[in-house]
Amino acid sequence: MALLLSTISRANLIKQVYRPLLLSTLLFCTAAVADRIESHPLETTATITLSENCPPSFMLGDNNQCLLRNLYQLYNSLGDHGIGGLKTALPAHRDGFSPQQIDLGRLLFFDPALSADQSVSCASCHNPSQGFSDGLGRSVGIHGQQGSRSAPSLWNSAFIKDFFWDARAQSLEEQALSPLFSPQEMGNNPAQLLSSLEAVEAYPQLFKQAFPDSGDLNLDQIATSLAAFQSSLISLNSRYDQYAHGYADALNKQEVEGLNIFRSFVARCSQCHMPPLFTNQQIAVIGTPEPEGRARDIGAEKTFGSAKLKGGFKVPSLRNIAETAPYMHSGRFETLREVAEFYSGGRGHAVPEGEDLLLHWHISEPNLTGDELDRLVDFMGTLSDSSLLPIIPQSVPSGLTTISDEAASKKTISKKNISESNHEQS
Ligand code: HEC
Ligand code: HEC
Questions:
Q1: Ligand 2 pocket check: which of 278, 343, 363, 378 to mutate, most ligand atoms within 8 Å of Cβ?
Q2: In the predicted model, is pLDDT for residue 396 greater than 80?
């Protein structure tokens, strides 16, 4: 490929390489999606066979490993240069899991059998129909308990190096154990988790299929499968991506204006939300206000033991951002327009008097006009793509109810909780 790229002119590059590649990628994906929907076995019996195919956008390599393929791999990496132009490579990613591990992770992700009282699955808070988030400012775990932060989207987790708003976990495997054993989220413990999965007729043999060489069902296998599934959630075919790869018509005039504002040194959004992942994966203190009546969440100060990072959070990726309201670590803002207004409101304007926060130098005084704020919102809307949504299991090995019915009832609980806690505080 390197040789090919160097022998053709830039003008011909799009015609000769990107278009056929994009088209063939799209065709491949569509065919693969159709194939997975039609041919996937029923998941109700004890003899489920895990998929032998990689999800769309992955190629089966040697040693039964699924390897990611996308157009961004044709571009140079950013290194330390600039702020990420249209044709910049993505950061390093996780791949190489087997098709069976990815498929087992998918079943585990949707199975409430992983929680102590068998009522909550990962998907309860990371719902695929809500951008793998839950539409709440603060997530609700077992026994209707409200947590302190909002559930981030899991799209493109393969590219993320630090997890949680405060960057306290360094791998998907490390991350996964946290909700499983958190009393507020899934409330389980290692012994009970293992025994409840072993008690489900299908699981021991499913784990054998996914891990033929590594002994009886264990925690590492659970963490690996969940990491494998989450690393397969690839969202890189938004209208923005089509524009970035050379299709000028993929964005309309307002959206291009929005992109230019986003990248301008006045608004400075892309200094932190750096394309193509729309995050530079750093921590920044930006002075987000907490919801009315709530104390400051110190965020990354706790992780790194550094007072300079008080109120600092990981810069979140903005991919599929239109699907994951409300926004910020606590869901303080309901709409993207409110977020844009916050940045335009002036450096530190929302930090309560007398509180000392060391705001990041790129938080400035952009004074954007109403039209410019609208254009930013238009642009953020172009980052949506769920064309490679995995198949949501109709039923899970435990036979328990998956998200479809549960999501609706959970909403009611949480709304009640939120109004109660606001009431107590006011
Ligand atoms: C009760 C709701 C809830 C459940 C259940 C839940 N999560 Fe989360 N998840 C959250 C919240 C809230 C956060 C952010 C917490 C924080 O940053 O302190 C989060 C963060 C994450 C992150 C970090 C994302 C990032 O980019 O930083 C990953 C990955 C994740 N969860 C995966 C899972 C998996 C896998 C499961 C099932 C084993 C799961 N979650 C179960 C609510 C939940
Ligand atoms: C100095 C780095 C920085 C700059 C500049 C910046 N952001 Fe952010 N952005 C962050 C951080 C950090 C968060 C999370 C803050 C929090 O949760 O309190 C965030 C959160 C967001 C969110 C919410 C994401 C979510 O998942 O809830 C949106 C939307 C957003 N920024 C858009 C923008 C726009 C538009 C601009 C330009 C006007 C901008 N950002 C400029 C660092 C930055």
A1: 343
A2: yes
Alpha-carbon span 234 to 70, nearest angstrom? 10
What CATH number has the domain bearing residue 114? 1.10.760.10
* Alpha-carbon torsion (193, 195, 201, 205), positive or negative: positive
Note down the domain range covering 290: 239-383
User: What's the distance, CA 49 to chain centroid?
Assistant: 28
Bond before 112 cis per omega within 30 degrees: no
**Residue 98 CB neighbours (<10 A):** 24
Return the residue matching tokens 């109660």: 420
Pairwise CA distance, residues 114 & 225, whole Å: 13
Checking DSSP bridges between strand 58-60 and strand 312-314, what pairing results, if any? Answer: unpaired
Report CA-CA distances (Å) from 221 to 2, 119, 382, 391: 38, 22, 37, 21
Ligand 2 atom nearest to 366, measured from its CA:
38
- pTM, rounded to two decimals: 0.88
- Count of domains observed in the chain: 3
Tell me which of 110, 121, 126 to substitute to probe ligand 1's pocket, judged by most ligand atoms within 8 Å of the beta carbon: 126
pLDDT tens for 212-233 read 998 899 999 999 999 999 999 9
Question: 282 is written with which tokens?
Answer: 């750093």
Q: How far apart are the first and last CA of the chain?
A: 63
Output the ligand 1 site: residues, CB below 6 A.
114, 120, 122, 124-126, 139, 141, 147, 149-152, 154, 157, 160, 163-165, 172, 175-176, 179-180, 185-186, 226, 230
Type and span of the H or E element at 314? strand 312-314
The answer as to whether 62 is a domain residue is yes
- Check whether residue 111 and residue 228 sit in a common domain: yes
| Cα–Cα distance, 175 to 213 (Å, whole number) | 24
Matching residue, tokens 């990072």: 309
Q: How many angstroms from the chain centroid is the CA of residue 90?
A: 15
Do 372 and 261 meet the contact criterion of CB atoms below 8 Å apart? yes
Question: Residue written as tokens 């278009």?
Answer: 19
Q: Using an 8 Å Cβ cutoff, are 124 and 406 in contact?
A: yes
List the beta bridge partners of residue 66: 60
Mean predicted confidence (pLDDT) in 117-145 = 95
- How far away, in angstroms, is 21 Cα from ligand 1 center? 35
Mean pLDDT value across the chain: 86
- What would the pLDDT profile of 240-259 be if each residue is shown by its tens digit? 999 999 999 999 999 999 99
Task: Tell whether 261 and 229 lie within a shared domain.
Answer: no
Is 288 inside any structural domain? yes
Same domain, 261 and 311: yes
